[in-house]
Amino acid sequence: MVPAFTPLEWLLLAIAALAVGASKSGMPAFGPIPVALFATVLPAKASTGAVLGLLLVGDLIAVRMYHAHADWTILRRLVPSVIAGVLLGVVVLWFADDTAVRRTIGATLILLVVLRVTFLLRERRTAAGPRSVPRGLAYVFGPLGGFTTMIANAAGPVMTLYFVASRLPVQAILGTAAWFFLLVNAFKVPFSVGLGLMTWQSLLLNLVLVPALVLGAFGGRAVARRLSPVWFERIVLVLTLTSGVYLLVRA
């Protein structure tokens, strides 16, 4: 049975599902929001499994939209290091309690904001525009992406940063990210089931929230066109930072 939630908690979960859909349809900056909202409503460890089911639905939609634009050279380069990061995340989830996981999620969100702001400042200071990421940095972004996606389902900003800095065209970023997260999230399923994070109860909750996710996916691009990209990113960064601080200091 689906757990009993208050109306406010259902509203937060619905907003989280909308954000999942929007993040998969062209607005990846929305990615950290579902993580924070689910960790607010559910126990921190259980929230990671509940979010994963929704992410897989969003990944299927994203692949359907952008499947033809993936850069498979970059994907193959990332695979070994991402797997290492996922396995490290499994170890942490195995030994950590809810408080430790919640604080790890909060710290991860804050780290993602710092990374994004650092990258934006780097672009602004470089007269020639953004530089390509050196090939060897796949071994930095890969483990970080694998760890953050396993521990908090929050690798979107990390990997989007890598894809953008790699000078991929917009369509290639969306296609590469779509396939990357579908494959990585599918790889995480056995571990999440084995850790007791993804359950029949969480899947039933996902089923209830899928309509909101689909609405977010197909409405996301329309909203993005009406909002200044600069202000959109600023709002999301502030919300992500606020969520991270809240989860970090919450008793």
Automatic annotation (TrEMBL):
- Name of the protein in its database record: Probable membrane transporter protein
Q: Which UniProt keywords apply?
A: Cell membrane, Membrane, Transmembrane, Transmembrane helix, Transport
Please report the record's description of how this protein sits within the membrane. Multi-pass membrane protein
Q: Name one GO cellular component term.
A: plasma membrane
Query: Where is it chiefly localized?
Result: membrane
Q: What is the lineage of its organism?
A: Bacteria, Bacillati, Actinomycetota, Actinomycetes, Micrococcales
Q: What family is it from?
A: Belongs to the 4-toluene sulfonate uptake permease (TSUP) (TC 2.A.102) family.
Q: Does the keyword Cell membrane apply?
A: yes
Q: Which InterPro entries match?
A: TM_pro_TauE-like, TSUP
Listed transmembrane segments: 78-96, 102-121, 137-164, 170-191, 203-224, 230-249
Origin organism of this chain? Agromyces ramosus
